Amino acid sequence: MNPLLYPIAVPILLGLICLIIPRRAKFVHEIIALIGSAMTFGLLIWIFTLKPFEFLMDGSIILRVDQLSGFILLASGLFGFLITLYSFKFMKEANRSTVYYGSILWTLGAACGALMANHLVVLLVFWGFLGITLYLLILTGGNLAADAAKKTLIIIGGSDALMLLSIAFIYSVTSSFDISTMQLSAGNPLIILAFILLAVGAFAKAGAMPMHTWIPDVAETAPIPVTAYLPAALDKLLGIYLLGRMCLYMFEMSRLMNLFLMIVGSVTIIAAVMMALIQHDMRRLLAYHAVSQVGYMILGMGTGSPVGIAGGIFHMLNHSIYKSCLFLSGGSVQHRTGTTDLDRLGGLGRMMPITFSSFLIAAFAISGIPPFNGFVSKWMIYQGLVELGQVGDKLWIIWLVAAMFGSGLTLASFMKLTHSVFLGVPSQSVESKKIKEVGIGMTVPMVVLALLCVIFGIFAYSVPLKNFILPAVGNVSYLGIWDPGLATVMILVGLVVGLFIYYLMGNVKIGREANSFIGGEHLPTETRVTGTGFYNTIREFGLFRYLYRWAEAKWFDIYDQLYQLAMNVGRFFGKAHVGIFTVYMVWVLVGLTLLFVFLMGRW
Amino acid sequence: MNVLPLFVAIPLGAAFLTPILSKAGNRISAVLGLCANGFIMGLSIWIIQYSKDTIVYFAGGWQPIAGIPIGIAMVMDGLTVVMLLIINVVGFFAMLYSLNYMTRYTETGKYYTLFLLMMGGLNGVVLSGDLFNLFVFLEITAIASYSLVAFGVEAEELEASFKYQVLGGTASAMILLGIAVFYQLTGTLNLADASRVIEGIGLNPAVIFVGILFLVGFSLKAALMPFHAWLPDAHPSAPAPISAMLSGVVIKVLGVYTLIRMFFNIFGIGRMSFVLIVFLILGTLSMVAGAFLALSQKDFKRLLAYSSISQIGYVIFAFGLGTPLGFLGGLFHLINHASFKSLLFLNSGAVVYRTDNRDMEKMGGFSQRMPVTGTTSLMGSLSIGGIPPLGGFWSKLVIVIAAVESHHFILAGIAVLTSIITLAYYLKVQKMTFFGKLSDLYKGVKEVPVLMCVSMVTLAILSLGLGVLLLPQLRNIILDPAVNVIAGGLDYAKMVLGG
Fold first, then answer.
1. Is A566 an interface residue toward B (CB < 8 Å)?
2. Can you tell me the distance from the alpha carbon of A261 to that of A209, in angstroms, rounded to the nearest whole number?
3. CA distances from A169 to A124, A161, B317, B386 (A)
4. How many helices (H) and strands (E) does chain A have?
5. Mind telling me how many Å the CA of B55 is from chain A's nearest CA?
């Protein structure tokens, strides 16, 4: 058997076994899932060393691993393994382990298949199958998740249908399904349409606007490991992988197509982060960031310059790492406190130090603070945008401002989150419980991911860029030089010097008592600062008041709007069905008459 | 020995035996019905091996003289084999399901009689080689289904059956009028022979007149918009296994099969290419309007009925493309739809069986209590919603590619958007019925009896795995021969009569 078939077949077969084994044997499910994901991860490492590698059937290349898909496969395998490990403790109470672990494994296998596919239909099959597994995984969240599951599969499955149309267009132009040999020029309007439709599929998976609305709903109701696994990690990898595949290999990008991407990217960055600012629920807040960050990746792709595209792809990798880490830390908090409502948390930093540190590192990374990984990729995207300006694009400054502004707002909302969950005064509900750090099965995945954030930041060039990203993109030239190693040393030196000076001052009293600074807001003495109230100012600010109100009434939710529209059309048709058969007879006669008029008319 | 008459003789024979045997107990007639259906299902599977041939059976041994048939002929070619498979496989599982389900009703002996009559009629329609017998079998099926729709004899069922009879009667009248003019025109009722004669006549107003009558008559049977209005009342009112038969099989055999046979093989689509445009228009109208209507329904079975209109629209749309790939897509979708729609009706029946309720707003959370029903209906829903790698996805893929290949870009787009709506309303069904909160009223609901489960599970496996029909090995013996018959057009006459 061809090596490329193993990482698809192994998890899918083991997943099937998981589904067959009765639900009481939870332990068996866990073992199978762990072995399956570990084996797949191992297989993927092996395949990474083999690349480029192909699997042929009937003379056409069905599966193919190259520079781009190689490292994404590796990352998917890692997430599969870590999430499985994390789930043991987290999913302890849930008695749906049959479906849960089966779907986790199936997801892994299907993701491998989608990433390796070199045949458009094969890609679509695995891609669509991921929709089913996501649906099943969300449903493990219980009764409340039913609505989110339905919405998700309608959006994802619907955009898969659009991809199908796009594939039909591509096939009608090229008579080929082979991705690696595809060269689609933008001259043909059909190809531009195909590009947009395929991009919509990628957007829905990755969660870019306007196809993003399922992500916050899923995050709120599905088990956290599911969110960390799919919307935060694998779906991002897949969506942006497809977009990268399209921009780099399949399509010759025209200016208009790039503009389309950049508009989607910047709108996504800003709008989603604005929504994140006002959230009260940790999971929902993180979910909006998962949307916002996609904007960077798409923006990077849209620049069309190698450094921008490399930055976009690198950001995808980084994002899946830190966002997974954030969701897992959030999951640990939920596991211990039983809530994700920001108003009911606080002061957990002392009680859960490992969770707190992992969370903090990931929060720094997502906010683009050097020397963590998020900074490096954002830096590359900025460079791509600046390069755009150099070749004469007049709009570059808009995209750059959007990207930087979004980054600032991200930091702002993470300050809120960090404060309300880990710092400040513990809320009553937290204080009443004896909260301690989560077990090793849950800390290991978080710590591994946090470490990756650090390594990919400090050794950005020597580890991820050199081995993973640059070979896939090629020809990357830098405008600005950013040496993360040197910068890290400088930062460390700065810290050491600072501490040194601090001690030299000697007689300064260590730790001083002061009132909390809350930006000049009035603080009644009996309330504690939760961090959420402070951000309510934004909500009441001028025009935002209306925008937020509309957003919360789902005016901008494309799914809700279209669903209502379709329902109304349906009801309109339904009114015509009065149940009186003479009316129906009239319809028949009208149909008959029309046919006679049109078909007999020419005689 | 030629087995073709058995497909008609066995169910009809059993149908006449059941009322006699039911004196001794309804259970006996049920078992007899099951055996009859099981036997012809086996026969229909056995006969796949001849799918590439055209087998003709002349009743009473009246062989044609000088190429002109003088007796009644039964014809089996690739298309017939596919239809026989659909009829008898779905029929068997609907019958199996009935054994448990029909305990809700009285006088079940009559039910099995009518069911078997319907089976005989359906097999007769696809096998008969002449137009008048086709009409007779069509009427047998139609009359059996009128009474089956009314089987519950509640006000709602009777009203639905009445509407069904009036509109179905209209269709039959048109078809009969068409046959009369057709006979006057060609002097023969044998399909193959008539095809030759018509080829000689060419296209004149009388031929088109007949064409329009058939078009309207068979479209009424197929429930294409605007001739569909009887279906949303009739299909939900019938007992669930009959709903499964009506939606899964009857509209396809009486409507789609007859339309295809008449226009592609007898009239010849090359001459009457306007029929393709009519197919495209009616098909698109049905699939779009049916989908919207289904989305806004709250009644489980009514939603499924509207969905049938929409899906038949897909099938006719695919045939209207007029390319072999389109025929493949249409036929494949026909098969897929037979499996998942009958499955979904059986699921709805399972819910009704336990709760006596069709209003989805009062349901919820049933998959906790009825895992088999829940899981199988999820499989059916995802398959009809076109999620890969389930069966429905593949037929959707073929249809969309065929539409784009024949440069119907906008229609391809409409087909895709409709499939999104389809997915939406099936997920709505899943959410409202099987997931979410279990209401206190239905705390005691439990899984349905074993025979019902067996039927649902088998059909679920079919609707999951029918994608394998596209594999070259299977495609060669099932789909391709049928596509060749349709694409071969007027070669039908040559295949049947030789020369």
1. yes
2. 11
3. 14, 13, 18, 18
4. 24, 2
5. 35
A-chain CB neighbours of B274 within 8 Å are 599
A599 shares contact with chain B (CB less than 8 Å) = yes
**Best of B228, B259, B295 to disrupt the A interface by mutation (most A CBs within 10 Å)?**
B295
Helices (H) and strands (E) in chain B, counts: 22, 2
B386 close contact with A: CB closer than 8 A: yes
Q: Searching chain A, which residue's CA lies closest to the CA of residue B406? A: A172
A424 Rama sector, left if φ>0, alpha if ψ -120 to 50, beta otherwise: left
Nearest CA to B101 among B161, B142, B151, B147? B151
DSSP for A519-563, written as a single string: TT----TTS---STGGGHHHHTSTHHHHHHHHHHTTTT-HHHHHH
CB burial of B6-33 (b: ≥16 within 10 Å; e: otherwise) equals bbbebbbebbebbeebbeeebebbbebb
Which of B227, B420, B431 has its CB closest to that of A161?
B420
Phi, psi dihedrals of residue A519, rounded to the nearest 5°: 70, 30
Distance CA B383, CA B446 (A): 25
CA distance A490 to A499: 14
CA-closest candidate to residue A141, choices A63, A203, A217, A221:
A221
A573 has a chain B CB within 8 A of its CB: yes
B211 neighbors B158 (Cβ within 8 angstroms): no
Out of A508-517, B100-109, B238-247, B420-429, which region has the weakest mean confidence (pLDDT)? A508-517
Q: How confident is the model at residue B13 (pLDDT cuts 50, 70, 90)?
A: very high
Beta bridge partner(s), residue A65: A53
Mutate which of B164, B203, B216 to test chain A, going by most A C-beta atoms within 10 A? B216
Find where tokens 């919405």 sit.
Answer: A151
Judged by a CB distance cut-off of 8 A, whether residue B292 touches chain A is yes
A565/B148 Cα distance (integer angstroms): 37
Report the C-alpha gap between B68 and A156 in whole angstroms.
58
Give the ipTM.
0.91
pLDDT tens string A255-269: 888 888 999 999 999
- Tell me the per-residue pLDDT of B318-374, one tens digit each, with 9 for 90 and over: 999 989 999 999 999 999 999 999 999 999 999 989 888 888 888 888 888 888 998
Q: Which of B273, B274, B431, B464 to mutate to test the interface with A (most CBs of A within 10 A)?
A: B431
Nearest CB neighbour to B423, from listed A147, A154, A569: A154
Asked if A422 and A356 touch (Cβ cutoff 8 Å), the reply is yes
Q: Do residues B126 and B84 lie in contact, with contact meaning Cβ atoms separated by under 8 Å?
A: yes
Which DSSP letter does residue A117 get?
A: B
Diameter of chain A by CA atoms? Answer: 110
Contact list in A for residue B229 (CB cut-off 8 A) is: 577, 581, 583-584, 587-588
Q: Which chain A residues are Cβ-neighbours of B430 within 8 angstroms?
A: 150
Please report, for chain A, the start and end positions of each structural domain, with discontinuous segments joined by +. 304-506, 558-600
Chain B residue whose CA is closest to A573? B293
Please give, rounded to a whole number of angstroms, the shortest distance from the CA of B429 to a CA of chain A. 10
CA dihedral of residues A593, A597, A598, A600 (deg, nearest 10): 110
> B-chain residues within 8 Å CB-CB of A160?
387-388
First to last CA, chain B: 24
Of B12, B214, B213, the residue nearest B124 (C-alpha)? B12
Residue showing tokens 């009743």: B59
Name residue, tokens 């296998």. Answer: A109
Cα–Cα distance, B144 to B242 (Å, whole number):
11
Terminal-residue alpha carbon distance, chain A? 66
Q: How many other β-carbons are positioned within 10 Å of the β-carbon of residue B104? A: 14
Percent of chain B with pLDDT over 70: 100
